[in-house]
Amino acid sequence: MKNLLLVSIITIFLQSCASLIGTVGMVSLGAASKEKGIGTTLNDNIIKTKISNLIFKLDKNFIKNTRVFVNNGSVLLTGKVQKPSDKIEFTKLVWTVKGVNEVNNELQITDTSLIKNIARDIASMGEIRARIMSDKVINSINFSIDVVNDKAYLSGVASSKEEMLLVKEHASSARFVKEVYNYIILNDDKR
């Protein structure tokens, strides 16, 4: 009898909390909508859901160690992955989602035994970004650059083949870069 009474009290309590939680959720959605509009908020939520689903399909273990934030089509990835190739795969994956305008991959690599030239990679990445940002033909916000062990990985969306080739050329001419992997897609691609 005591157990039935306890279960009943807990059930009533949880039911009364559900409306409170729903109200808090609506208020927070309303607050976010005022800042950037309901349409943008919904688009960002759709993008985030699509990215989360792709990450889950890639490897369900990644979900617990990573976070995805979307603001006006700009995606921020945070958390931890084991290998540099996982970080690069995340960037490529995010660029496949329609509506993504920018990818900021701040994932930390936990297995540093695979990273042999950290200082050179950071220097190369900075050099490539500086060249792309100073090139007036290139919209630098549309591209992500990762450099791991003297290999540059380019991803993003180019408005033309000329823009894509310019980005690739800037990466190829970086001082320590030995190989360039181009995953840039053209704007007319169906994503």
Give a quick rundown of the structure.
The chain is built from six helices and seven strands, in the order αααββαββαββαβ. It is an alpha/beta fold. The radius of gyration is 22 Å and the shape is globular.
How would you explain this protein's 3D organization?
With 191 residues, the protein is α/β, with parallel strands linked by helices. The protein is 53% helix and 22% strand. It contains 6 helices and 7 strands, in the order αααββαββαββαβ. The protein has helices spanning 2-36, 38-58, 62-65, 84-95, 118-134, 161-172; strands spanning 66-71, 74-81, 102-105, 108-109, 143-148, 151-158, 179-186. Strands 1, 2, 3 and 4 form a 4-stranded mixed beta sheet that branches. Strands 5-6-7 form a 3-stranded mixed beta sheet, sandwiched between helices. A hairpin with a 2-residue loop joins strand 1 (66-71) and strand 2. Helix 1 (2-36) packs across helix 2 (38-58) and helix 5 packs antiparallel against helix 6 (161-172). The longest helix is centred in the first third of the chain and has 35 residues, at 2-36.
